[in-house]
Amino acid sequence: MSAIFNFCAGPAMLPQAVMQKAQQELLNWNDQGVSVMEISHRSKEFIALTEEAESNLRQLMEIPDNYHVLFMHGGGRGQFSAVVNNFLGDNGKALYLVDGSWSQAAVEEAEKLAGKDNIDRINIVESIAGKRQVVIPELTQIDKDYRYVHYCPNETVDGIEIFDNLNSPWPVIADMSSNILSRQIDVSQFGLIYAGAQKNIGPSGLSIVIVRDDLLALPCLPQSSIMDYRLAVKNDSMYNTPPTFAWYLAAEVFSWLKSVGGVAEMEQRNIEKAKRLYACIDELDFYVSGVAAQNRSRMNVTFQLTNSELDGKFLAEAQAAGLVALKGHRMVGGMRASIYNAMPLEGVDALVTFMTEFAAKNA
Ligand code: PMP
């Protein structure tokens, strides 16, 4: 079979080297004679794996010592509920900035759990000269006592990314499901970062939470124990049986990231990949991006064909050329190429070649 490049938004492609290693050791992990899926999460071998995973993630993201790293269940949406349950007891209030579909889903969940009166929201995307652009209000001017401000720095469906940090008087909670580990960030600017694993980390279901320890003193709502950050901290993310195979794969992805040069190297590669793809979209009249240049996601490149009648043909021919999962999200239509850390530059080059040829043939 010739090379397939998988542009799926998630679950997304994982690094080939990781998949091959997992395949090799599937039936006999670490000389145990059994699979990593078949051993106790409390065995010393598995605990060693989790300690190394955490240590590697701490190095990769330069996570300060006053932050806990948790490996939890429930993916990204699980965290939509967890942050509310963990921080909004006593009628505490929170502010949600909405920059696309996922931050919209997060605020709806928060309203459901904490009540609409306790949740404020501000839409931060404007249409300027026909392009969607993020305009963040001056948060320091808002005279309110919020427990936190929540936002999504990379909107997977809309292809909108926010590169600047918020200037916030309250702890910042960020849903980094689709851009964690894609570029260097200053973790100390955040109160809590969470991410569903299925884009830049590993299989779906797992979520990573990085939380500053003082936030855990805030009053919490009654909640299920597996959503409780304090219990997760106390039990080293093993209050109940964790998703061990996903954790193992995440550990392998972290090792792979270190071996290829860490997040700084990834960021350079991601900048180059995005640059080549957006250049193709901008240079050919055949394609259009609806997002302003400064907010174009490096991970999820959304674009439309100027003649949408050709969408089906584009997708079919791309698929035949080994370029799969380019259809935009059902809510927004058009195309989306997700180019996470595991997508090699050759994948992007193959897509650019295909798009250029398709435009020439169908002009
Ligand atoms: N947040 C973002 C930014 C996402 O992209 C996704 C999933 N694509 C989610 C949350 C929800 O994740 P999950 O399906 O794991 O609940």
- Summarize the main sheet: 7 strands, mixed
CATH architecture of the largest domain: 3-Layer(aba) Sandwich
Shape: globular
DSSP E strands, number: 16
How many individual helices?
9
Uncertain regions spanning at least 5 consecutive residues: none
Mean pLDDT: 97
Q: Quote the distance from N terminus to C terminus.
A: 31 Å
Percent of residues in helices comes to 25-40%
CATH fold name of the largest domain, please?
Answer: Aspartate Aminotransferase, domain 2
CATH superfamily of the largest domain: Type I PLP-dependent aspartate aminotransferase-like (Major domain)
Q: Roughly what fraction of the amino acids lie in strands?
A: 15-25%
Order of helices and strands: EHHEHEHEEEEEEEEEHHHEEHEEH
| Spatial order of the strands forming the largest sheet | 2-12-11-10-7-3-4
Write down the domain tally: 2
The CATH class of the largest domain: Alpha Beta
Report Rg.
Answer: 21 Å
- SS-based class: alpha/beta
Ligands bound, unique: 4'-deoxy-4'-aminopyridoxal-5'-phosphate
Concise summary:
This protein is of the alpha/beta class and 363 residues long. Helices cover 35% and strands 19% of the residues. It has two domains: 29-259, Type I PLP-dependent aspartate aminotransferase-like (Major domain) (Aspartate Aminotransferase, domain 2, 3-Layer(aba) Sandwich), CATH 3.40.640; 262-362, Aspartate Aminotransferase, domain 1 (Alpha-Beta Complex).
